[in-house]
Structures are given as C-alpha cells and as structure tokens.
Amino acid sequence: MEGNVPSAVPSKSKPRRKVKKRTTRPNQTLPAKKQFKASPTNDLEMSEKPLPKPEDSPNEQTPEIPEEALQGLINRFGPGISELLGAGSQRGKRNQKVQQLLSDIQAVGDEMRQLQGLMELCDYFNMSMEELLGGFPVDQFVPSLVDLLNYEHNPDIMLLSTRALSYMIESIPKSARSVVHNHAIPIFCNRLMFIQYIDVAEQTLQILAKISKDHSAAVLEAGGLMAVLTYLDFFGMSVQRSSVATAANLCRNVAAQNFELVLSVLPLLTNLLLHSDGKVVESAILCFQRLVKSFHKDPSKIAALAGEGLIDNCIQLLTGAAPAGVIERPGSVLIVLQVICKRQPDNVVGILERGIGPVLKNLLESNDQGSTPTPNSSHILDLLSFVNSVFPELPPNRAPIVVKREQYIIPKQLVDTPPEPTEHEKILRDNFSLFENFAQCVYGAVKETFSMNIDTTIRTQCLSIVLKIIFFIPEDKLIPLLKDMGTSTFVANLLSSNRHSYVATALRLANVLLEKMEEIFRKYFTREGAVFAIETLASPEYIKDIDSLDINTKEVKKWISQEAKALKEKFFVSDDMDESEDEVIEFATEELKKLRKLLKQLNKAEELVDQKELLEEVAQMLISDGGVSVFEFLRSGAAESLYSFLSANINSDQREERWELFATVMEAGKHSRAPLQALITLLQNTLLQSEKFVILLNDRKGPGSGIKFLAKPFKLRLKRSSDETVLSDFSSNVVGIEPLASVGAVEKFLWDKIQPAVDIEEEEDEEVVIEDNSMDSSGFEEFADDTEHVLEVEPPAALRASACLQSRKSENSTSKRLQFYYNGEPLASDDNIFRLLQHHFNKNLSVLRADSVANITPAQKLWNTEHTLSYKRTMIASSSASKPQIPPEPSLLYNSTNPMQYFMEHNLNFSLPVPDDLRAVLLFLKFLNKFMNTWKPKSKVVRDMRRDKDLSSDLIANKITLKLSQQLQDTLMLCCGELPPWCEFVARCCPFLLPFDIRRQYFTCTRLGIARALHCLQQVCPPENGAEQFKVGRIHRQKVRVSRSHILRCVFRVMELYGRSKSVLEVEFFDEAGTGLGPTLEFFTLVSHQLQRSDLNMWCHDSTYSIPREDHIDETKKQQQKKKRPDNPLQAEGPFQYVSNKGGLFPSPLKESDSNASFIRKMFQLFGVVAGKAILDERMLDIHLSLPFFKWLVGKPLTISDLAIVYPEIAKSMREFQKVVQQYRDALASNEGVSKEDLQKTILYRDCAIEDLCLTFVLPGRSDWELKENGKDIPVTLDNLAEYVELVVETLLVSGVRVQMESFRKGFQSVLPITSLCYFSVSEISSMLCGWTPTSQEYWEVNAILDAIVCDHQYTINSLPVQYFATALHSLNNEEKRNFLFFLTGSPRLPIGGFKSLHPRLTVVRKDTEGSPDDYLPSVMTCVNYVKLPAYSAPDITACQLKRAISDGLASFHLS
User: Fold this and answer.
1) pLDDT tens track for 365-394
2) Going by C-beta distance under 8 Å and a sequence separation of 6 or more, which residues neighbour residue 20?
3) Beta strand extents in 952-995 (DSSP E only)
C-alpha cells in the first residue's frame, strides 16, 4: 500500500505511506479464516460457515442431524477432513484430466491441439496444490515435452514446453531427475548458445537455475556454464543475476575431469567481478570460492584459476575501485586469495605489491569499532585466515599448541638440525620490505581484534599471526613495529590466562622477544608481571594436582611447566632480584614500591594539605611516561586504597572535603582530567586481567543448534526422603521427563504410585516419560499458530472509564501434597526441571573460569547425567509464583549533596562471590561512575572540565560486554532462563560497564519471555546467506481495529482486553487500508497525545498547543463542541488543546477528596498500562515526561533539583529560603550574646523580612491545600521556614502526586515488573519509552544518516539521489523532522541510537518513473521503513518534493 503520485500536480492523488499486505500465490488455497467479533458481554464469539447440506439421505428413517452438529463432528478429526471425504471422486476426475492433457501434447501433426494442451498443462501446474500432484505421471510427460523443445519452427510450442517443464520442477522437485535423464540439458544449452527467441532463452535460464541446484554436474558437462554466461548482457538485470547464480551452482564440487569446461569460461567469470551490479558480483565471487575449494589440493589448477586477472580484480573489489563499489562480504574474496597464497606462494608478492595491507587494516578496524560489537565471526575469520596465509608456517620448535576437536596438539620438538627453509620462507627473505610493510599495517589491528573478540577460533588465528610477525621480522625492524603497542602487557595477560593454548603461545612469544631484545623486554616483562607469571608456571604448585585431569590436559600442563622452567633458567635467575625474599616473590619494581608507600601515607594523613600533596604525586605517577603498569597497580592494592580513602567511615563533611580534593587533583589539576582518565584505564585493564567469568555455550554448531536438546527427556530418579516412612519408594524406576515440565507435573505423576498399598510390585528400571500439558502456557504462552484474531473496537456512547481496567482475580491456590528436594534444597511447584537443574549447575561453577569448562557443552552434562529428586509429604498450600513487588515510593532528600551520601549508604553491595582484588576494582569503578555523574563539586573548573570531556564511555568494559553478548546468543540458555549468575550481577550492580544496547538486549532476553528473547536473538544475529534459520515459534500478534476519531475511548477497551497480554498488539484504523507496524506506531502516538489533553487536568504545565491534523470533525461540529463540552471527557470529540512543560510533564497535585480524583486515578492507571505495553512491544510514545516522573516510577530519591525541573520558579524561591534558613542557623550558633529578635531583623529575604511576605502553610498556587492542620492560619516565620520548605517540596514531589503515581505504577506493573527496569538509568528509561526527539542533532548529520541507510534496487550509498536525500533530511527544521519521522514510521521520535536503531532498517530504493523523475513525489512503506525515491537531479528538488510528500501524506494510511 503505497502513495504513488505520477506527478507533482495538485489534482493528482496524494502520496501515502505503504504498509504490508498479505498476498498468496495463485496455486495456494487459504483455509477459511475464523472471524472473531465482540459480543455485548465483551466475550469473543466464533462463527464458522457450515458445510453444505447433502441433497439425498441414504435412509429416510434416519433422524435429521443439524448441520452445526455434523460440522462440529467433522471438525473434531482436524482441519482438512472435509476435503478428504470427497478425495476419491476428485482423484478420478484429475486422472482423466491428466490423461487428456498427455494425449493433447502427444498429438503429433496437430500443433494447435498441442499448443492448447501445453497452455492447459501450465495452468494445471500453476493452480494445483503440491500435495495433489503426488501421483502425477512425470515419466510419461517429460519425454513428450522434451520432444516439443525441438519445434524450432514454432516458438510458441518451444516456449510453452519449456515453461511447462519449469512449472513441473517447481511443483514436483523430483521431476528434475527425469528431465536430466531424457537428455533435455543439451537442448537447453543449445537454445542459449544460439539464441533465436529471447522469451525462450529467458525461460530456459529459469529452468536451468532450478535444475542446477541438484544436478549441477550434468548441466556443467553439457556445457551449461558457457551457455548461461555467453550472452549475459542480452538480458535484463534480474535475469543476469539469476544466470550468474546458476553459474555459482555449477561451480560447486567440480570434478577434476571437468576442469577444462571451467577453464574455457574463466575470462567471462573474471570480468564479472567488475560488473556494476552488486548481486552479480557476489555470485561471481561465489563461483571462484567454490572453484578454489574444489581444486585446492592441485596447485597447477589453482595457478590456472589465478592467471586470468583474478588477483587484480579481487584487489579492486577489496579497495572499492570496482564499479560495484565496496562489497558487503569481503571475506569471500579473501577466501579465494587465501587458497591462492597457500598453493601458489609466488602470488603472495603480487598481492602485497598491490597494497592490500591498508585495506585489510581498515577491514579489521571496522569490525572492532563500536561499543557493542556483534561482528560476523566467519567474516573476521576469513580476514585473519588470509593474513595468516601471507606468512610462512612456523618451524615445529616455534609453533604454538593448537586445539583440534577439543584436543591439544603439542608440536614436536626438533632433535636434529632444522629443516631447509620452505619456498614461502625464501620468498619472504627475497621480498622482505613488502612483508615488513604488510606487518606494520596489520599488527596493531590484529592485536585489537584479539581483545575485541572472545571467539576462541578468532583469537587463535590472531595469536598465530602475532607470533609469525614477531618471529619472521628481524630485531632492527621489530623495535619500531612494537613501539607503543603494549606487547609486554599483551604477553603478560596471556600468561595469566586459564586457557592452556594461550599460555603456550605466550611462552613462545616471550621466548622470541627475549632472544631478540632481551634488555628491553626483561624490564617490561618484570613491570607487567610476565616474569611473575612465568615463575608461577614453573613452580611445582602448577602441576601439583594434575593426576585428576585427563591425559591430554595433563600432557599440556607438563609441557607448559617445562617451557616455563626453561625460559626462567635462560633469562631470569634469582641473582637479578632484590635480596629480600619478599621482594623476590613479588618481583617488586621501584614504581610498585613508591606507589604502595604513597597510598599508605594517603590513608594515614589527616590534614587536607598533606592529602593533596600525596594525591598529586599519585596523579603524576599515573600520567608519567612510564606510568603504572597493571601488575604494579594490582599488586600495590591501589584500587582498594583509593576507595578506602574516599569512602572512609568519617563524618559527612570530612568525606565531602575528600571528594572535593579528589575532584580538584584528578580532574582540574595541571593536566585537566588526564589523571582520572589514566586511573579509569588502569582499572579497566586490571578488570580485564582479573575477571574470569564463565560463558556457557550450547550452540556450537551455529545459532539455534542447542535447541535440539529440548526434544530429549531428562533422566530422573525419584527417591523417598530418609525421614519419610509412610510413602513408598519409587527410586528403582528411571523417569524420563520433558525439560520444560514443572515440578508440579512430577507430583501429579508420582502421587498415585507412592501411596501406601498392599502388595505393590514395582518393575525394576522401568522408564516412564512425564509430559506436562501445561508447560506451554507457562514457558511459551506467547507463541501462536497462524490464526489471525481481529477485534473491532467501536466505542459505544455508553462506555465509561469506570468499566475498564478491572483487576484480574488470582487463581485459587491448590493444595500441595509432596515436597521435592534437589541436593537438599526444596523446590517450588511451578519451577520447570530444566531451570532448576541449570541453576544448580551454575552454582557449582567457580567464578574463576577453568580451561576445561570452555570445551564442554553444559547441556551434554545435564542430559547425560542421571538426576535424583527426593520427596516427602507436606501440608503446605501451594500458590502461584510470588509476583514482583512494586518498589517503595521515592524518598525525599532535602540537601543537594545528599544523593552521593545516599548512594554510599545504600548501593555499594555485591552479592556475587568474587576475588578480593576484583571486588575492589568493581567497587571503585562503581564509586567513580556515581562520583562523576552525581557529585556536584564546588570548583567551577571541575564542573567545566566535566562538561567539556565526558568519561562515561571509558567505564565500559569491552571484554565483559563481549562475553555477555555471546552468552545471550545461546538459544538453550535463553529458553532455560537461567544464565550464569555473573550476568545478572554485572547488569544489575554494575550497569555502567555495559553499553545501553547490550543492557537492552539482556532486558529483552531475560524479562520479556522466551519468544521475545529468541526474536531478539534473530535480530541481533541474523543467519548468514545460505545458513539454516532456527525458529522455535513466533510471537502471538493480536490485531485490533479502532476508530481514529475516538482514540481515548478505544484505548480503554483495547488495554482492558490485551494490555496485560504478552502478545504483540497490532492496530488498524477503520476505513483505512494500512496495516502492520506503521498504523500501530501511530496508534501509540495518538494515544500519547490524547493523554496530554488539557481538559483531562492530569499534568502540571506551562503552555498549551494544538495538533490540527488530529482533529477529525467538521467546522459545524467544532462550533457545537465549543458551545457545550460533555461532562465525560472521554466523549469529547475535539478540537483539543494539549499541554506541555519545558522540563517535562509531571502530575499536577491531587487530593483524594477532589471531585475528579477517581477519574484521574483511572487515567493514570491506563497510562501505566499503555507505557508498559509500549516498552514490551518496543513502541514509542510522543510525550515529554520529566525525569522526576521516571524517578518516581523506579523509586529513586528526589531532591529540590527535581523540583526545579517541574516548578523552576517555586524551586528558586525554596532554594533562597534554604539559604535564609542556613544564615539564620549560623547566626544563632555564632552570636550567642545577641537576642533572637535582633538576629531575626538582620536575616532578610530579598531585602524583606520573612514575616512581611505574609506566607502561610498553604501550597503555592492552591489556596485550598493546607500543608498542615489549620495551615492557612499559621504564618511562616524564620523559625518554621525550614518546615515550610520541606512541606512544599514534599507535597509537590511526593504526597501531592501519590495518587496518580501509584495508579501509574499499578498499571505499569500489571504489564511489566517495575524492578525489571533496574538495568537502566532514569534518562535511559525515558528514552526507551519516549525515544529521542529530533533535536538530537547528532542523529541528523549527513554521515550518520548515510551510515544508517540500506540501499537496494539500483541505488548504492554513493548514488547521488541518496546523497541528496541525506542532505535534504539534514536541512529540515525540527518540526519538519518530526513530520518526516511520523510520515516514515508512524512515530515522530527516533529510538536510542537514531536511524541505525530502526527495525526494520531504513531502506532507500529507486522509484521508476515514466517521465522526468523531478515531477514525481517519493513514497514510503511504514511497515518496513521503506522509501521509494525518484532519481532527482538536484538537492533542492529533492528537499522540495520530500517536504511536499510529507505534508500531503501525514493524515492517514491509504492505497494510492
């Protein structure tokens, strides 16, 4: 449904937003759709059309059976049964039809009859369902159709016979074998080599495309590769794409004897790499990728493939110099080049001479950018594999340990003289400068790729490349290469790893570096802790407990220990250490000693002058050239010491003095914020080295592969508890239980079998499978079938708010007869077996990651182990799982410095057992995060520094982010809902370590149900082309149709029925064709506007505005509405005024005794349901809510600063009153001899005494609201001014809005637990619900827009019309930006992240026009964020036509 305006003439139809419409193929028959409608009692009634009544009755005495009863009986057998009842007679008719068609096409000599038969045959295939073609006589038809292919004198017969074969293969795939067997392939190839009729040629290409998928060898041997490529330019672009895709099929698994057939078309294939169309180029690359895979063991054939200009064209593709521009998957090109380098090392020189180094560097760096990298692992692996292939293989005595099939492969040691250099090594020595330049380009990028990925295969490739570069590059060239690269830190981190293969590689690296540059690296290895790690590996403690390990791991640890001992004896002897035994153990450097001494003195110093001097010395050490290494920082206990200094148990004033001092030294000293930034970097590096969080992965064979375990039952043994004497013991039986079955299902199965009875005989080792019929409703209740439910909401005039939003009654609790235990812990009845087993598995894992854990799929352990549950009788009444509680209302802090103190008292707690050094680092990072964002220093210099340079992004821990991202990609863990405990710990206690995108993904995957978790996973990690897609189910979608002119009345009914449902709400408007995402987003936008109506009296505001396009009544009705407004605001039809507030909306104070209190309460409860549903369904509301509103929602403390956001003038007066109070208190304390009356005369407010203001204890602006009993009669004086300020602030922020906010929270909680928002700050919650306004200018920069756009259909990102489009969007004013977003998506706001975060992505395609493109308007499809853009000739024309399309297409969704 698209607005398609042929010209810009006003009389033409207006452009409308295009939305999805379901379509069906001609040969598909849709089942009858069930219609659901709303009855007067609000129940859903289903009506179905009955079957036709039979004409004759077989027995007149048979009583008449109602049609409805017969239909119901038939339907009990399942869908489609009625069609099967008449299948016998229909089959006979079909057979007669088929035989008639066969007779027609075999009527040799009667070409008219043959032509008619072919037409009917094509129609027959096109209109028949696949299951009805099972008995079609393929072997009888194919020979006749193949004969007709040779009717060269009759092109119509040739065309229709080819088409009939194509339809036959599509409908009956097995028929392709018969087509091949009857020698049709040579005929098809001949038609393409000697083209007489273009229609016949195009149809021939289509049928070859289908046959080539399963019979590529037959087509290739018949000359098919040459046939599909020879006259490629004769066809349209879509046919060209199909032809090259067919060629790619033919290049799969090519036999050696067919190489000559490939060789003849190599020039054509090579030239296709420079084709202008990206799809054609991708298929051409796939051809070569499959060819080198077929012949990778034959160097001569690889040389032949590379000899036709292949390398030059591949380099052009990688550099973007090819006509198609930069390709999306450069890894596919590098696969080809990698095989060429391995089998033909001579070509390596030619590749390097073409400057591929900078290209690979850019490709690697582009995958490492961003705070939430979710790169394509196979793509990165292809890049690294090629880089690895450029360098020769390492000699065996230098090669690292590798892991193959979960086994460590230890390289063999050379006994005799080393072998002769390989050909590849000789080439490297003869062309050393090329390899040196290449190494300089890629070394840093490879190291960064290692740190930005946690995939073991990628990391192993990176280590191999680093080791090769360091080994093959000589010392004089290696020094400048390694400068400022942190190689010593890199090696030290590897040596402290728990992965044996990394440790082994680090030992190889350390050995080579020390051999080449001993003097340099002895010093750095000592400072970075590498020497300490080598000492640890060489100690007897390292191999003390290896007897309990498997043989392979035991051998590896012995090898590592021996290598470490040899390295220690060769380069590090005890004579080089200090004489003190303690210092030898700690390998203490001078820097470490100095830092430790300074920190001890700092914590002992009491005077601020001394503390400042010591802090300045520490700051100077942090930013000096040598700096402080991670090892020194960790061993000195710097994190714990600094945190202890800043959080000491002293009075609040002294603590605030320390905070001010710390801020001044670290953020506003000689080096501005450099010391603080260096400190954060050290903390992050220490965290990187210290944390060993476990990742549990089951999807080792691709995304979704672990889901297969859910089809296997657990082995369960049910054992009577030792203190149970009445019930029977069932432990002799092994029970198979479905993973998602509940403990309650086990009880139901077991109860009747264990009650005491006489002569009960139990079979030994009986295996029983327990199926839980109720588990789908608890775990997968949001999964739905394909039935579409449509509720039409037409609000009757009598609908009242009081009838809506009724709370649902909880289910009656059932008595529980058995209590089950697992490992001594009691189990809840509603727990599923998989979750509780996984929970106990996670509890037994150490926080420190063991190397063996990484190589084991957790699911294999759980499913291969027999688990024992014990049981005994109980009289406890079971109930449903405890519901999450609404957080307590926010506390009010009257002093602006209190939030930091409040944080120190309430938020520095950790529930995860972590090592002491890691705990200290996390605590200090958490403190610094709050300190930078909450503490308001007195120093203006510090405040300016913070404003100019934000360090929040420096707190993000990339390694932990990557670990959590990978953990969230495991489908089995998502279905279980029991992730490793560190995931929740980091997301809840240290959210600042994770970027917003990852926290949002974690929230979706753990809090919104299994269906949404899997849907989110498929969005974050879409399957690669050709990869198998996994799909457990789809989210249930509830469709409703509402009236645009009665939005507020409709939303009450919709939210009452479906607001609390886990299904996704989809909305349509009456009398409009639009459906899908666009109308749904607009529905939420319109609802949010209605909630801001001024006549509802819900909000505190400072201005009003109108939205003309949302007033859907004529002028006569407008006048009538102005004269008389209805008593019930829900019945008002506009025009409306809407409220706004500069700081954001906040509830207006309300008393429970107010006449409209009941209505306001229901409106806020409705708003809570709408807000929860918006977050659940990832919709946005067009409403500007204040931050205090969201603080109220989650229970964050409020201050007078929050009052300033909502009531700036009142807050200004209250702050001035606070200063007056403080002056008065200071005067009383310092002037003991002066009378109180005399002091009061000196304390003035704006040159006026407080008493002269004539204030009473009444809420400002509400003369009827007394702040205390008889408040209107109590004057405000200096003595009670503090109480007055507190009561005003407390009333405006807390007690005066308690009714509204508790109602809002109640509504929100009914959809989504408020506690689930704990992973986000209040500003992030605001952005999740309300999006980002168009004033976020960074999202509207031209480059940002171009980065977010996906181009297709003849457009690329470099196309001028696309560039003009981005420029036009950038030039829009704020109102036009809102209108564009509303026009494009249905919502006038962007999600966090801007255009890049739109789902689906913003796509721009070329709009075909018959005349000049400048005369046409663009159109959009709101359901997929799709823009059809004519090829405008200039930026100003683009901007003009875009603005006109926006203004004409805003009001509604229609077909053009």
Assistant:
1) 876 554 333 446 778 888 999 999 999 988
2) 1, 1075, 1076, 1077, 1421, 1423, 1424
3) none
